[in-house]
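anyone seen this seq b4? input:
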Amino acid sequence: MPRCRESGEPPVAARRIGKNRRDNRGLTRRRKAEDRAISPGRTPGYPADMPEHDRPATWSSDLLRSPHTTADKAGRVRTMFNAIAPTYERVNRVFSFGRDAAWRRDAVRLARLTGTERVLDVACGTGDLARAFLTGGAARVTGLDFAHEMLVRAAARGGDAAWCEGDASWCEGDALALPFASGSFDVVSCAFGIRNFQDLRVGVGECFRVLAPGGRLVILEFSRPGGRVARWFTELYTARVMPRLATWMSGDRTGAYRYLPSSVVTFPGTDAVAQVLRAAGFSRVEIHPRTLGVVTIYVAWNNP
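predicted toks r here
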């Protein structure tokens, strides 16, 4: 996988990961910190030789009061997602009651594909949205994430029926320093990822930079319902019920499922996110709430 480019370095192209297990040999092997694709100035969450049972929770109660202002948020998020990668998809399906797949299909539909688009899926995780874009008719999809274990699982899904030879490639990199030339993609997408950016404005600016004129940014993200009753029920479920059951199901020790509700409640509202998109240069921003406002799909257009 290519390394994130340092400041001042030319963009680098994403190297494709093979679909067969023999082509991916070594991807799951623990590597030294200096060999991993860590963004400049950031470090892995735990020492490689630290036993799992000795590792402290990545998100403490104090940090969860304001997770988006944590100075080393990016490193903590990377550690968290590497830890929960094996059970990530299963937990999503169970605790969204299967709605996460429908939300992704809606996001693809709102991208208004014509069949020729080059798509970059930022913070792609295990590749769910990338697969939805290929199923929806995208010509080419590149998935980017900085959590190595997530990408390993995305590449391992290459045998799915929706995938064809040459359709997809994978890149380990940082959303705040995308390793692609300006104007490289017709669609940039991000599902449940902008909330995890160390700096929202920088991340959105990078998405705008790599979009070609006439391109669009499609964001799927959790939000707070506007209705009082819907908000009360949603926050009761996400703050009390889901964290305990999801932590038990995943065996997580990083505090990942305590971070989720806190990161949603403390994240800017839909109007504030739309303002950030316009400030980045997008000429038109659409806001599409789904499931009583539990999630929101943003479509931002880069019209010259």
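The chain is about 35% helix and 15% strand. The longest helix spans residues 228-250. kinda curious what u guys think
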